[in-house]
Amino acid sequence: QVQLVESGGGFVQPGGSLRLSCAASESIFRSDSMGWYRQAPGKQREVVALIRKIGSSTYADSVKGRFTISRDNLKNTVYLEMNSLKPEDTAVYYCYKSPSYWGQGTQVTVSS
């Protein structure tokens, strides 16, 4: 059973930055896809960013130009660099590893 452990969440003011990390308990080198989802109160879980084995990535329209996803296969870790954060980015952020593995989530709160 693969374990994914997120870290880096917290409280930040609008316009601030955070970096999320997701450490996997096994190699991610062969993982077809890894990424981040988020779920705000009262809303469905939505994809934020995905990065594929070949390195290509996709982003939700709402975060394009502000968030950057990356992966370090040697450290079995995926990162989400979040800049210019907005209150609407407030959510629990979940790490995802294909085909169906999830982390426990880390809270991100953006508020003044």
Explained architecture:
It contains no helices and eleven strands. By secondary structure, it is an all-beta fold. Strands 2, 4, 5, 6, 9, 10 and 11 form a seven-stranded mixed sheet that branches. A four-stranded antiparallel sheet has the order 1-3-8-7, with no helix packed on it. The model has no long low-confidence stretch (mean pLDDT 94).
| Overall helicity | under 10%
- Share of residues in strands: over 45%
Q: Strand pairing plus helix content: what structural class?
A: mainly beta
Oligomer class:
single chain
Q: Mind summarizing the main beta sheet?
A: 7 strands, mixed
Order of helices and strands: EEEEEEEEEEE
Please mark out the parts with pLDDT under 50 across 5 or more consecutive residues, or reply none. Answer: none
Integer average pLDDT: 94
Tertiary shape: globular
How large, in whole angstroms, is the Cα Rg? 13 Å
Distance between the termini: 40 Å
Number of strands: 11
Count of helical stretches = 0
Summarize the SSE layout with pairings.
Blueprint: E1 4-7, E2 10-12, E3 18-24, E4 33-39, E5 46-52, E6 57-59, E7 67-72, E8 77-82, E9 91-97, E10 101-102, E11 106-110
Parallel strand pairs: 2-11
Antiparallel strand pairs: 1-3, 3-8, 4-5, 4-9, 5-6, 7-8, 9-10, 9-11
Notable characteristics:
globular, about 0% helix, four-stranded antiparallel β-sheet, mainly beta, seven-stranded mixed β-sheet, about 110 residues
Short description:
This protein has strands at residues 4-7, 10-12, 18-24, 33-39, 46-52, 57-59, 67-72, 77-82, 91-97, 101-102, 106-110. It has 112 residues and is mostly beta strands.
